[in-house]
UniProtKB/TrEMBL annotation, chains A, B:
Keywords: Lyase, Pyridoxal phosphate. Residues 1-46 are annotated as: Disordered. The lineage of its organism: Bacteria, Bacillati, Actinomycetota, Actinomycetes, Kitasatosporales. The keyword Nucleus does not apply. The keyword Lyase applies. It comes from Streptomyces silvensis. GO terms for molecular function: L-serine ammonia-lyase activity; threonine deaminase activity. Residues 106-401 form the Tryptophan synthase beta chain-like PALP domain. GO terms for biological process: isoleucine biosynthetic process; L-serine catabolic process; L-threonine catabolic process. This is Threonine synthase.
C-alpha cells in the first residue's frame, strides 16, 4: 500500500503535514525469516484512523499499532525557532500533528519546574501536566483523538476509563459538540463520576471484564469513535493519539534549548512514553538536538506489562497486577509502542513500588507540586536508579501527570481534629508538627 | 511621611521598582470637611508590609488598605512588548510587582478561551484560572504574600481559609521552606483537609468566630506572617497581595492586544477585582491601552458586602449572608479596594443567585471548562446584564477562578447506577440522555 495525502480541510487552523499511517509492526515475512532484513513498514492512507491496529502485521496475540507519518521536508525552516510567536495549544505545533478538527482548550504549555531536592548532574526538572485543561496529560491526546472523531463524522466518542482519560475525552467532546460515552468500572469514585457528568458525558458503569466488549458494541452499533483502546490482543490505543504527546518533547526543547539526557514517564500503556520519544526523534531529524533522551518507563511494581515484555524480548505482554494505589497506570496488558521507545532510546523499564511512589509524591508536594500517587512514578524511578548507584544521564525530566485531587484514597486519611483556640500550648504543639 | 526606596536584594530575580506603600484611604481631614479636596495620600516605606491597613486613615469601622507604589518612570520602554521573551510566572512582570523573594511555581500564564455560547459584540472570553499551580487564581496572590513573609524573615505564614487560599499559601510556603498554619472552620471538607496537609501545612480547625482571633494569636505569639486578612473592621487583606492579580490584566492585554470593555470577576473581598483594575490603569498610564475596562464585581446574592457598600456609598459594609453553594466568595465583610475598582472604572456590583451560578457553571462545563460554582459567578453576571437588556461593553472577559473539584457539594449528587452491558436497549436509552 502506498502513502496517501491528507485530505485538506478549511476547518484545520494550520495545514497538517500528515501524509498517512505507517505500521510499527514488523512485516510477517521478515519476522518469519530470521536474518532477513525487515521490509518497508506497511503504509496506509491517513483516513480512517486504524483504531484496531495494523491490519497487515497484527497477529492473534499482538495488535501492532500504526503511527502517523508526515511530509517532514515541507516544514518551514524556522518552525521551532518561531514557536513562541504562535498561539498556544496544539495549534502551535499543527503541521506536525494530525489535523486539528476539534476546537482546543489551550492544552499543553505546562511548566518545567526545578526539583531541587534531587541534585543530579545537569539538574532535575518536573513537567507539571496538572496544568492542562482537565488537569492531566490526557488532554494532549484527546485534542487529537476527538479531532479524529470529527474528521470521520462520528456521532460521538466512546472511551473506557475511570479517570483522567474519560474526563478529558468528555471535555473535548463537549467543546466539539459531540456526544461522549464513558465506560467505567462499577467502583468508579464518586468525584470522578461527578467530573465526567459535569461535561455532559454518559457514564456507563459495568464490571471490569465487560468494559472493552461494551466499548466495542457502542462503536459498532451507535457509530461512536473509540478514543481509547479497542483491541483485546495487546494495546494499540488510538492511531493518532500518541502524536499529541510529541508536544511535550517540543516544549521541553523550547524551554531548555536542548534534549535532556533522560526522561522518566509514569507508564500505563506507554502511549505518552512513545509520543515523547517520537517528538525528540523529530527534533533530532531536524538537527535541533544532538541526541534522543533515554526513555524510562515507570510502572507500578504490582503489575508492569511493559517491563515484562522488555524482559522477555516480546512486543507485548500480559500480567496479573496485584493491588496498587496507582490506579491510573495499573494495566494488565502492554503495547508495542512503549517497547519501541525504551529499546530505541537505550532507556529502561522500571518497576516502582507504592511506597516509592508515595514518598516521591510527598517530595513533590513539599516542593509545591501536588500530584496523584501515579503522577510521582517518574520521580520514584529516578530515585530508584540513583539509590542503586546507577548512572542517570542528565539533565533529567520527570513527567508529573495529574493533580492530587484524582487519588482514590484521598479521603481515606482521617480528618484533622478540631483544636481548642483557647489552648495556646495545644496550638503550639500542632505548629511544631 | 515620604516614600522610601525598596531595599534591593540579591534574592530578587529581577529588580522590583516598588518604592513604598500608599494609603487608599482618604485623609481624615478631607473626609471630615465636605467640599475640601483630599490631600495627598499618606505614604509609608515598602517594609514592613502594613498587614493591618493604613495606620493614618483607618477608623474604628473601616481599616483602609494600602497599595504598593512604583518608580513607574524607570520601566524600560519595551517592557510589555518583550514580555513573551521572558521566563513565565511572576518573574515575567517582576519590576511592577513587590520583590519576589519566594521561589515560584510558574503561576499565571492562564489561557483566554472564547465562550461561543454567549455571543456579544466584541466577543466573550473566559480567563481559566484553574490552570494555576494549585488550580486557582490565589496562586497569583500567594507568590507575592509568601515573598513578603520571606522578606520580613518570618518563621512561617498563617492564613484563615477553608479552601483555595489556604492550599495556595501552603504550596508556596512549602516551596520557600517556611512553615504554614491554616486556620479552617471545623466543617472543612475532607478533600480540602487532605489538599492542605499534602503540602505539609498545619491545619487548625476552629469554630468560625474563632478564626480571626486565632490567626492574630499565631501572628503575635509564633511570629508567623499573615497572608490573609487580619482586621475585624472591614477587610484589608495583605498589603502586597493584590499586586499579584495585576498580572491578569497584563496577560489579557498581551493576548488581545487591547483592553476589554468589561471584566466580570467572582468577588469575595474584592482583592482580585482591585488588582485587575490596577493592572489596566498601569497599562493606560503607559499609553498601551486607551481605556480601563468597566469592572463588575459578581457576588453571591445571599450576601454581597461590596454591593451593599456601593449602594450605601460607604467604604465597606457588613452583611449577614444566607446559605450559598459559592462558599469561596461567601463573605460577611467587605473591603474598600473593591469599592475603588467599581467606582473608578464605571463598572457595577452585581448580585448573582446560586441558580444563576449553577447555570453558568454548566454552560462553561459544556464548553470544556469545569469550574466550581463560585468560579462561574462572572459568566452569571454577564448573563444577568444581557438578560436584563443592559448594554455590556465588549470585548468581555470573565474570570473563572478555580476547578470543579473544589466544590463542597460535589459528592452530594447520587452516583450513576451500573448498566447491564447485555441490555443494548438500556445502554441506548442512556446514550440518548
Amino acid at each position: 500500500m502506498t502513502s496517501s495525502p491528507a485530505t485538506p480541510s478549511p476547518a484545520t487552523p494550520t495545514a497538517s503535514l500528515a501524509t498517512g499511517q505507517r505500521s510499527l509492526g514488523v512485516p510477517a515475512d521478515a519476522a518469519d525469516a530470521p536474518g532477513t532484513a525487515p521490509g518497508p513498514a506497511p503504509r496506509f492512507p491517513l483516513w480512517p484512523p486504524l483504531t484496531g491496529g495494523c491490519p497487515v502485521t497484527s497477529t492473534d496475540s499482538v495488535a501492532y499499532p500504526v503511527e502517523v507519518d508526515y511530509a517532514y521536508d515541507e516544514l518551514p525552516a524556522d518552525f521551532f525557532a518561531t514557536a513562541g510567536s504562535r498561539p498556544r495549544g496544539h495549534e502551535r505545533w499543527a503541521p506536525l500533528l494530525p489535523p486539528l478538527y476539534a476546537p482546543g482548550l489551550a492544552e499543553g504549555g505546562t511548566p518545567l519546574l526545578p526539583l531541587e531536592t534531587l541534585p543530579l548532574e545537569g539538574g532535575v526538572w518536573v513537567k507539571d501536566e496538572s496544568r492542562n485543561p482537565t488537569w492531566s496529560h490526557k488532554d494532549r491526546l484527546n485534542r487529537v483523538t476527538v479531532s479524529a472523531a470529527v474528521g470521520v463524522g462520528a456521532a460521538g466518542v466512546v472511551v473506557a476509563s475511570s479517570g483522567n482519560h474519560g474526563a478529558s475525552a468528555a471535555a473535548y467532546a463537549a467543546r466539539a459538540g459531540l456526544r461522549c460515552a464513558v465506560v467505567t468500572s462499577v467502583d468508579v469514585p464518586p468525584a470522578v463520576d461527578a467530573f465526567l457528568r459535569a461535561y455532559g458525558a454518559t457514564v456507563l458503569p459495568v464490571p471490569t471484564e465487560e468494559r472493552w466488549p461494551l466499548l466495542r458494541r457502542v462503536v459498532e452499533r451507535a457509530g461512536y469513535h473509540p478514543v481509547s483502546n479497542l483491541t483485546p490482543a495487546a494495546h494499540t490505543g488510538h492511531a493518532f493519539g500518541p502524536e499529541g504527546y510529541k508536544t511535550i518533547a517540543y516544549e521541553i526543547f523550547a524551554e531548555l534549548g536542548l534534549a535532556p539526557g533522560s526522561v522518566f514517564v509514569p507508564t500505563g500503556y506507554g502511549e505518552m512514553l512513545f509520543g515523547v520519544w517520537k517528538g525528540f526523534t523529530e527534533l533530532a531529524r531536524y538537527g535541533l538536538v544532538d541526541r534522543v533522551p533515554r526513555m524510562y518507563a515507570c510502572e507500578p511494581a504490582a503489575g508492569g506489562p511493559l517491563a515484562a515484555a522488555v524482559r522477555a524480548g516480546v512486543p507485548a505482554a500480559h500480567v496479573s497486577p496485584g493491588p496498587t494505589a496507582a490506579y491510573a497506570i495499573d494495566c494488565a496488558v502492554g503495547g508495542y509502542r512503549g517497547v519501541v521507545a525504551v529499546r530505541e532510546s537505550g532507556g529502561g523499564a522500571l518497576l516502582v513500588s507504592d511506597a516509592e511512589m508515595a514518598a516521591a509524591r510527598d517530595e513533590l508536594a513539599r516542593g509545591g507540586v501536588w500530584g496523584e500517587v501515579s503522577a510521582a512514578a517518574g520521580v520514584a524511578g529516578v530515585r530508584q536508579l540513583a539509590r542503586g548507584g546507577w548512572a542517570v544521564e542528565g539533565p533529567v525530566v520527570c513527567v508529573s501527570t495529574s493533580s492530587g485531587f484524582k487519588d482514590r484514597d484521598l479521603l481515606a486519611v482521617p480528618a484533622t481534629g478540631a483544636v481548642d483556640p483557647g489552648d495556646w500550648a495545644g496550638v503550639e504543639r500542632r505548629l511544631r508538627g
